[in-house]
Amino acid sequence: MKKRNWMKTGKQVGCLAAVLMTGAAGVWQTYSYFMEKEEAVNVFTVGDFDISLKESEWNPADGDGVNLYPGYTVYKNPTVKNVTDATTGVQPCYLQMRMKIKDEDGKMVTDQEVLNMVRQTIRYDDTYNGSWDTTGEGKKLRQGRIPGYSEKELAMLPMVNPNFQEVDTGNLGEYLFQYQGGKNGIMDIDEEAVLFTDVAIPIEWGVKEIKKAGRFQIQVTAEAIQANGFASAGDAFQVLGESVEKGALDEQG
Prior knowledge:
Elements: E1 12-14, E2 19-24, E3 27-32, E4 38-40, E5 42-46, E6 51-54, E7 73-75, E8 79-82, E9 93-103, H1 112-121, E10 122-123, H2 151-155, E11 164-167, E12 174-179, E13 192-194, E14 198-200, H3 207-213, E15 216-226, H4 233-246, E16 250-251
Parallel strand pairs: 5-15
Antiparallel strand pairs: 1-4, 2-3, 5-16, 6-8, 7-14, 8-13, 9-12, 9-15, 10-14, 11-12
């Protein structure tokens, strides 16, 4: 079993933490700016089915989100799976994932420059072979690679899985991604999808960029609605959106 300092199991999502070290004459000073804090991963559904959101790579108890420095890469894979018991019948669903960027006090980040910086660190590597309940590796972005990846290299990869389409929420710091994979955007029982696979701090970031980004949290929520009874994904997402606004979704334990 390979040793990791950054594993995640269960319904927890961690936040980023970075340490920038500068030295002179053999004396090192440490500055911590990114957030070290856990944030719940929530799952909400409409209908009689069950989905699960996990990050097999991320475990704050093992040090995830701590001591990440500019140029460092860590696997982070929020993955949703339709875990409905097949004995209950055919239970496909439409899925969307909501990502919120918050500060250390849990308030939404509204500074567009900071939001752009956070989005820059989130990447999807289509060669990553981990899953909902197993860890893995990627070839385009490798965890712990030294010296890390440049802004240009990171820009060559998408922020999220292309099977998700971003939808404008109209709210700064809140991003919505609707699943378009599977069969016409429908996730069947035992199917799964990962939103992104890595968090990577560009090697170009220095004290100025670290201070600007500050301490922040990444909160991920999965929201789904039973596909049966809807003529199209558009109709399903409209009802799901209205349910979210009304707070009428069931939270899965």
